[in-house]
Amino acid sequence: MRLILVSAASLALLAGCSNGEKTARYLIDPPTSGERVANRLGTAELRDVSLPEYASGDEVSWQSADGAVRSNTRQLWADNPQRAFTLTLARAISDLSGATVIAEPWPLAEPPRRRVEVRVEKALALADGNYRLTGRYYVSDEGAGGANQARGFDISVPLADQDPATIARAQSQAISQLARQIATLSGPGQSIRTSSTPMPRIDDIFSQPLPPLEDS
């Protein structure tokens, strides 16, 4: 009888864990503002965005009053956070500026003129009632005389509460603000001119016609 009761309890526990309706998943979906800025990037490859460990996991995280970063196994992101952040940011920059910004790997035959790298230091709903997105971004231009950018960002979005849906909306708004900053190449930092001629790529070398053979 005891074995039957234990088995029944185990089955009930498994049924509760597998109930998808008890797990909430949240999208990263930046709002469309309709704003347009000048195209300063042309074609650019966006490397996978580097996120802190707590922001790259499946669970939606927040900071509690004691300063700890907490999460709930039933409150998840709908997609891999790094993938979603990278793809969403690339699309937001493109929609805002008209530039062709594509997440790596670059799918087109013609290589990109620039490459963009974003390193996020903080992406968290803080206990002070704000969602903070901080870090640095880099834009490399390999062409001689090109302008390379090394700039920081510190974005804050007010939170009405720490509900996961509110956090997801705040993160989406923060990504929109970051997209505008990258598209306009703005933020604290500096611009560094490329002084050297770029090394030819391997595929460029082998695509050149061979010299004619000399008469023996």
Automatic annotation (TrEMBL):
Domain of life: Bacteria
Pfam family, one: ABC_trans_aux
Residue ranges constituting the ABC-type transport auxiliary lipoprotein component domain according to the UniProt record: 26-183
Organism: Paracoccus methylovorus
Stretch list, region Disordered: 186-216
Biased composition (Polar residues): 186-198
Protein name: Membrane integrity-associated transporter subunit PqiC
PROSITE patterns referenced in this protein's UniProt entry, alphabetically: PROKAR_LIPOPROTEIN
